[in-house]
Amino acid sequence: MASTWRLRSAARAAEFAGEIQYVPVAEASQAMGDFAACLALDQHVDGRKAVRLLGWQPKHGGFVDEVETYFASWKAFQEE
């Protein structure tokens, strides 16, 4: 299940004012197929190794820090 704070951040960016309802993956899979399992993944990617070995310096924050940008990009793509 996605972390609540990421879920709420995405809902806020989408201006969703309704109730967030959790649906078991097995139930969601009936309607969405394998895509439901993808949406249920909760993964954390850590860039410390790239910073240490390559000197990489990230220019962007994580998902919650930039959720409004991601949503606006997705929405613009949907309107094309």
Protein described:
The model has no long low-confidence stretch (mean pLDDT 87). The protein contains 5 helices and no strands. The protein is 59% helix and 0% strand. It has one domain. It is extended. It has helices spanning 4-13, 25-32, 35-40, 48-54, 63-78. The chain has 80 residues and is mainly alpha-helical. The two termini are 31 Å apart. α1 (4-13) packs across α5 (63-78). The longest helix has 16 residues, at 63-78.
Notable traits:
mainly alpha; extended; 5 helices; 80 residues; 59% helix
Residue share in β-strands = under 5%
End-to-end separation: 31 Å
Portion in helices: 55-70%
DSSP helical segment count: 5
Radius of gyration: 16 Å
SS class: mainly alpha
As residue ranges, the low-confidence spans are none
Order of helices and strands: HHHHH
| Gross geometry | extended
Number of spatially distinct domains: 1
Mean pLDDT: 87
The total of beta strands comes to 0
Multimeric state = single chain
Major beta-sheet overview? none
Produce the secondary structure layout.
Layout: H1 4-13, H2 25-32, H3 35-40, H4 48-54, H5 63-78
Helix pairs in contact: 1-5
Brief summary:
The chain has 80 residues and is mostly helical. It contains 5 helices and no strands.
